[in-house]
Design a protein that fits this description.
Blueprint: H1 9-12, E1 22-23, E2 26-27, H2 33-45, H3 55-70, H4 77-100, E3 104-109, E4 114-118, H5 122-131, E5 134-139, E6 144-147, H6 152-161, H7 168-186, H8 194-211, E7 231-235, E8 242-246, E9 260-263, E10 268-271, E11 294-295, H9 304-314
Parallel strand pairs: 7-10
Antiparallel strand pairs: 1-2, 3-4, 3-5, 5-6, 7-8, 9-10, 9-11
Helix pairs in contact: 3-4, 3-8, 4-6, 4-7, 4-8
Length: about 325
Amino acid sequence: MTTMSTHALAELQAVDPRILHFTPLGLGGPMQAEDAADYQQRLVANLVLADDVAQATRQKFEQLCAGYVQGALCYGLFTLVADAAQLTLEQALRDRFAAHHGGRLTVQDRAAYEHQIIYTTYPDFYEQYKKVRGCKIRMGTSNTWRGFNTTLDGLLLWARREGLVRGQRNRHNERAKKALRNLTAHGTFHLLTPVEAYRALSDLAEIINHLWGHSTPGGRLYPAPITRDVVAISWDSTTGSVVARHAAQLALEDKGRRTHLRTGPRGLLTRRARRPEPDGVRRSTRHHPLPSPVPMGARQPYTGDRLVRAGSARA
């Protein structure tokens, strides 16, 4: 028979020594207890849900974040948070399903008869769907009948058909998350680190935000578009010096040499003077087709503002 030992209040309030080695630079020497607790709180503060996310999903996510912070005092909470994050994904999908169909959905039973279900929450829909022995709902832009089994697998299939999740890499991640969910529900004892717990929370936040139509800046699964600025690169053919700065800060003065500017990887403007582009200047034609050169003239000075207007006009 296993008995739980009791601890004094001061012991319960002490930072777990294992957390001290998880530093901003990775595993290393122990930090001060206050610094370690502050670091973990700062990490969680970066995880923000969009304003229109369902309240039940938001409350559950905030509960997980609070548990993660308390992991600084009780190391085992990191495992509980990571496991609960796998289950919260299903709740988020249920809430999104209920909001997406607006409380009314026509379903089809095994005999191909149609039934209209009016519901208020997903559990309400589930009970009625089971009562009429529903097996199909209409999905996707084609609005065709597809099998729907109300489980995590069915909800992920529905979300992908509706365009709420996307990407081939994420399709493989979804299979892994289904396996992790089953491992959480039916698995055995295991112990996870703060790194794994934070990754589970971070991925969950990205998926939730994307279900409600919001990308995550700097995200791993559903990143927001990269901010692209207009930059000018020029060089002096006499001295060989190269200047690179934002176009708004750069004024080109014509010195009798023909000058052309071309947009590059972040709206980059590069100078062409019968020589190759400097090393390191690259662009992705996957997202932005390479435009033709932007002629800037050869006998007039051009301020940074004009460069910005010229580059924007060609982008």
